Amino acid sequence: xxxxxxxxxxxxxxxxxxxxxxxxxxxxxxxxxxxxxxxxxxxxxxxxxxxxxxxxxxxxxxxxxxxxxxxxxxxxxxxxxxxxxxxxxxxxxxxxxxxxxxxxxxxxxxxxxxxxxxxxxxxxxxxxxxxxxxxxxxxxxxxxxxxxxxxxxxxxxxxxxxxxxxxxxxxxxxxxxxxxxxxxxxxxxxxxxxxxxxxxxxxxxxxxxxxxxxxxxxxxxxxxxxxxxxxxxxxxxxxxxxxxxxxxxxxxxxxxxxxxxxxxxxxxxxxxxxxxxxxxxxxxxxxxxxxxxxxxxxxxxxxxxxxxxxxxxxxxxxxxxxxxxxxxxxxxxxxxxxxxxxxxxxxxxxxxxxxxxxxxxxxxxxxxxxxxxxxxxxxxxxxxxxxxxxxxxxxxxxxxxxxxxxxxxxxxxxxxxxxxxxxxxxxxxxxxxxxxxxxxxxxxxxxxxxxxxxxxxxxxxxxxxxxxxxxxxxxxxxxxxxxxxxxxxxxxxxxxxxxxxxxxxxxxxxxxxxxxxxxxxxxxxxxxxxxxxxxxxxxxxxxxxxxxx
Amino acid sequence: xxxxxxxxxxxxxxxxxxxxxxxxxxxxxxxxxxxxxxxxxxxxxxxxxxxxxxxxxxxxxxxxxxxxxxxxxxxxxxxxxxxxxxxxxxxxxxxxxxxxxxxxxxxxxxxxxxxxxxxxxxxxxxxxxxxxxxxxxxxxxxxxxxxxxxxxxxxxxxxxxxxxxxxxxxxxxxxxxxxxxxxxxxxxxxxxxxxxxxxxxxxxxxxxxxxxxxxxxxxxxxxxxxxxxxxxxxxxxxxxxxxxxxxxxxxxxxxxxxxxxxxxxxxxxxxxxxxxxxxxxxxxxxxxxxxxxxxxxxxxxxxxxxxxxxxxxxxxxxxxxxxxxxxxxxxxxxxxxxxxxxxxxxxxxxxxxxxxxxxxxxxxxxxxxxxxxxxxxxxxxxxxxxxxxxxxxxxxxxxxxxxxxxxxxxxxxxxxxxxxxx
Lengths: 549, 422
Prior knowledge:
The complex is a heterodimer of chains A (549) and B (422).
Chain A: E1 18-21, H1 37-42, H2 44-50, E2 54-57, H3 85-97, E3 101-107, H4 116-123, E4 135-136, E5 157-160, E6 165-168, H5 183-198, E7 203-207, H6 224-240, E8 245-248, H7 254-257, E9 269-271, H8 273-285, H9 289-297, E10 306-310, E11 317-318, H10 324-334, E12 341-342, E13 345-346, H11 350-353, H12 358-370, E14 374-378, H13 436-440, H14 446-457, H15 462-465, E15 467-471, E16 478-485, E17 488-495, E18 501-505, E19 514-517, E20 532-536, E21 541-547
Parallel strand pairs in A: 1-2, 1-14, 2-3, 3-7, 7-8, 8-9, 9-10, 10-14
Antiparallel strand pairs in A: 4-6, 5-6, 11-13, 12-13, 15-16, 16-17, 17-21, 18-20, 19-21
Helix pairs in contact in A: 5-6, 8-9, 12-14
Chain B: H1 9-18, E1 23-29, H2 33-50, E2 56-62, H3 69-75, H4 81-86, E3 94-99, H5 106-119, E4 124-127, H6 139-148, E5 154-158, H7 167-181, E6 193-196, H8 197-205, H9 212-228, E7 233-237, H10 252-269, H11 271-276, E8 285-286, H12 301-314, H13 316-322, H14 325-337, H15 346-361, H16 367-389, H17 394-421
Parallel strand pairs in B: 1-2, 1-4, 2-3, 5-7, 7-8
Antiparallel strand pairs in B: 4-6, 5-6
């Protein structure tokens, strides 16, 4: 089945299955130990075969790499270690030729302190770019703003010894925040966007959106003026392009994310962070309650907008938007070893979090592909890659892609010591045990299963565009819901527990429908007015297309 | 809830047990006890011999027979040693017989068969006519294999025909469908056919099952829908088609009216497609049609020619409202030469048919009146053709029929232009 979204469909993102990857660790074409665009281009067939239809790339700008590229020193270029601008253009062209959209990062909130703008700004109090950043004579302004990188930062202000003032930074101290109260900054960031859009980029994942604007007496998160900035940028985007997309990274509770959609005049998409956390909670609790609560709490969004849902990404599994009790539970269940914890989160990949349990991995991906929103697959999770918590920062979940059981896991021909990050090599998740080549040759590998899963998801628009109606069977270990779009209905039943479960579903409202299981096309008895009995194996899930004939 | 569905709860339970099938052989029936057993045996043997590894279902959709047809379907067994010993399917063979809901008729039966095919995700569907006594096991692979191998979506039959066989097809339906739809389909009235599950699902979704079009002319509509719907057509060589009707068949006037009504209705339904279509593409053939050495029964051509001449005169005022002046003049001239030297040229006949179709489209008169008035002209044309070719060789007849089809193709552009203006 071809992906649902068509190149000319302005709402293609609503039907997309997105694949997030790090160019640095995807594939190295020139043997220098670092992935590059030519390497990524050579792997586009793999991505197309996986069934995804949009790629989201971590930053590839020139950078001192003190935050793995999120500290940007030049917005208009590609770091040479990833290749040339021509390599980038060829990659875009090759991706588009395969029907793959491309999202790149847009780090609006801050730059590297090595960026020429900041170098100029700090050079004197009179410099024309001085007001491009946020300065203060004291470090006690905006005192209600929390510190995000708790493990490394003790303040949101850093002292600049050159200009003898403090500058504001919500993240690392080497990442000074840009000042969006300055119209010049907004105009410049639009120029940055247009530069990449003109090169064919299909959209941006916009980093750290809630922190763009500061106001005294607030938490400096999601202040109203932030939305004016977004509306300005979106307005410019709509005036020049018809089919591009902005995806907001706003780690907030869903009702506070809602304003970032505006009235179809801000972001097209936004991550649903709390949903992700509660998926992990529910499967560990063997109880649907956390998921039901967050789904019921998720507000309606404008019709042109879409949630982005995910299991893992390049950052820690964030525990910011949970209660202290929930955070303690997550740490106890998923990160007993404190080395796995960073900031307010857990820096582990999907498979290790789920103890390598194939059934749980499948269930979580089944939830990802059947809950409302456009799903994002983090590179390597389609083969069940492991992590290395002993690498600094979040680098342990950004290790090289494991293509084969050979040299450096097939990622690079460089000496292993030269790799940007070491390849995972333990007997459980190491490249000899977990790699693309082996899984392509194994019919029931996780990789082939993921390909089938994505194919079935893409066979209907129910999952991407449909409504959701939760069912409430007495058995709390079962999470069941009906997705509906136009005339189609799909019944989804998930066993969140590690034991066989029976459930009787009240499906009277669906009486007369014939359930057809979507992976094997097996028929099930017609739904009647009596409770519908189903039994599910541990962590099993069913997707039933409801036919009426 | 079963009342609202094509499929009863009991049938659904049986289908759940069957599961996904590779080949579904569907047999629609209504009081076919005298002929059904050989059909079922041939179907079963065909599946066993040619598709021993496939998941198969023989599905009988019955319109309420009161002559034990369903029981005969259910209980029939292989009748020869060869079949018993050499045909051994590896899988459980499934056979279901069930009544269908809705108005009795082939369309209701087919709709149920298509619904079952869709629900069971059948790769290939073969439909057999329960009245055909000449069906052999080889008909099953002939109709199913081109679909299973992915070559085509719709397989029409090819029968060896004598020169005098089925003039309704050779003189009327075949050339009209070829010219209009742009495909060289020799047997557009598909009594037996094969199709993909995809085509079956497509037909099921069309809003035609309740209206008269499909009820009276489902055979023709299916072919038209396959061609107009962008499905890949094919035609497969079968043996001779010998029909032994269990019940008395309607006379020619009723058959002609039904057929012509169906043809006109199909053209109305597929207007957008055939108006844009030009030329006529070859339809791939699977297998080789045997040459028919028999001469079929020859009707009373003298009587047909006299009836033609008489009716043309009597219907002249009506014909003036339907036919253009040149066509009317040609028809009158043809009638004047009957019965001894009756000639009804190909181009004249093509123009005649298209102008009658246009007359209906312009609502000059009802469909019933159009077909009633056309019938005597059809008799004249048929008489003229058979007078010339009843004793001709098969090759000569083929050439003559090809000339007729080309005449219809030449007449189409003008007809299409006039259709658009109406």
